[in-house]
Specification:
The protein is of the alpha/beta class. The protein has seven helices and 17 strands.
């Protein structure tokens, strides 16, 4: 069939014929006027057609078609719109500036070696799987899917998707897999605010920005991931609940900015990966809440240094928060400042012992100097200091037959101050050992 401008097929039925008379391909020649050419198929049953190809026109609209498995090979189309398709399997390949698939019943939708600018899949709640391989697109937008979204589902090393912006509305989707994809922005959103549980995996890919909102996920996996441009990079996960955050061979510190507002992270699994204790955006109290989440979730990790790092980061954020609210939270600020000075927020017993010993020695030296206590040599001074360092020592340990130093005001004051300091030091030292026993 050759035509110049417009061809419309309505209420036509195609099916497999007798042996030797089988219809298995629709071939559209290149004799259309590309500026005016429009072709529309409507209300077809093309169950025997395995391939539609060689489009030589500007716009193609496929509406209300049904069949089994079909490949559509695009040929530099301006626009392809697929509406109300009822197919078991549909594969798109070739080049087209704009592709829209909407309101269709397609069990499996594939793209292979596809080159497009804008690709939108919407209101296709019966589509069970969307799989792509070697797809180049400026904008890929997916909404109203039923089950699985897989970018580069074959996971072959030689096939790489190049997509500037991936937007997935996961209100009905159960699984999202993105692999071997170079992308500027990955956006996962939930406009319906439903609590659909999503399994998300991003692997062997690179991106500048990951933006996730209102996600409920059982497993959130980032594996072998790199940043394209560190200067503009951002990771944002807000108003989300993640049961298990899994990072493998991924250093999130390459991101310039973080914005976490997580309801819950129940478990953290790190393998040759890390979440930095800096760069998180937000108020000090929000940052504190974020790192408390990471600390709690990381307690399952055998490396206790990881959990202690998150704990210290949380306390630093709380210290900054208390500093900004110093008048109303002086007690909180003071306790945090003391904890930081003695044991780095209860994470270093060595620091606690050293700080306690040094401060006690300074107080002892000041006391000896103020009362002009006679010290003959270093050994006698050391012996007196050891007694002074004992939290249970009596105040009269300096008394001599000729002088009751225990009645001096400076001795009473400094002795009391030392015992308070020793009590704090003992508490912080014991507290710092918790990372070895949890």
């Amino acid at each position: 069939m050759n035509t110049a401008e417009r061809s419309i097929f309505v209420n036509t039925y195609f099916q497999k014929g007798e042996s030797g008379d089988e219809l298995n391909r629709i071939h559209i020649t290149k004799k259309f006027d590309r500026e005016k050419g429009i072709i529309k198929f409507g209300n077809y049953n093309i169950s025997g057609v395995s391939k539609i190809d060689e489009f030589g026109l500007a716009n193609v609209f496929l509406d209300d078609l049904q069949g089994d498995s079909t490949i559509i090979n695009l040929n530099n189309l301006e626009e392809l719109e697929i509406n109300n398709f009822r197919f078991q399997s549909l594969t798109l390949t070739g080049k087209c500036k704009k592709i829209t698939v909407k309101d269709s019943n397609i069990s499996q939708l594939y793209t292979a070696d596809l080159d497009t600018i804008n690709f939108e899949i919407k209101n296709n709640k019966s589509i069970q799987q969307f799989n792509t391989t070697s797809t180049n697109s400026r904008n890929l937008k997916i909404s109203g899917m039923a089950d699985i979204v897989s970018i580069n589902h074959n996971n072959l090393p030689s096939t790489i998707n190049k997509v500037d912006n991936i937007t997935v509305d996961f209100d009905l989707i159960k699984t999202i897999n993105i692999s071997q994809t170079r992308c500027k922005t990955i956006s996962l959103i939930n406009n319906l605010n439903t609590q659909n549980l999503v399994n998300f995996k991003l692997s062997n890919s690179s991106s500048n920005r990951i933006l996730i909102n209102n996600l409920a996920s059982k497993n959130f996996i980032i594996q072998d991931f790199t940043i394209n441009q560190k200067k503009s990079s951002k990771l944002q996960i807000t108003e989300s609940t993640i049961e298990c955050l899994i990072l493998k061979n991924t250093f999130l510190g390459d991101f310039k900015k973080f914005n976490f507002n997580l309801s819950t992270i129940s478990k953290l699994d790190l393998s040759n990966s890390s979440i930095p204790t800096s760069k998180i955006c937000g108020s000090p109290f929000q940052i504190y809440e974020n790192y408390i989440q990471f600390y709690t979730a990381s307690l399952n990790i055998n490396d206790k240094n990881v959990s202690s790092d998150y704990y210290k980061a949380a306390k630093w954020a709380l210290l900054r928060y208390s500093l900004k609210n110093l008048k109303s939270r002086f007690d909180s600020f003071g306790s945090l400042l003391v904890s930081w000075g003695f044991s780095n927020f209860g994470t270093s017993w060595v620091q606690s012992v050293l700080v306690t010993s040094i401060l006690s020695a300074i107080i002892f030296a000041i006391m000896i100097a103020l009362i002009q206590y006679p010290v003959n040599d270093f050994s006698s001074a050391l012996s007196l200091f050891i007694q002074f360092f004992d939290p249970l020592h009596k105040i009269d340990f300096l008394d001599t037959p000729n002088e009751k130093y225990s009645e001096y005001g400076w001795v009473i004051l400094l002795n009391f101050l030392n015992k308070v300091l020793l009590a704090i030091g003992i508490y912080e030292t014991i507290r710092a050992f918790r990372k070895f026993v949890k």
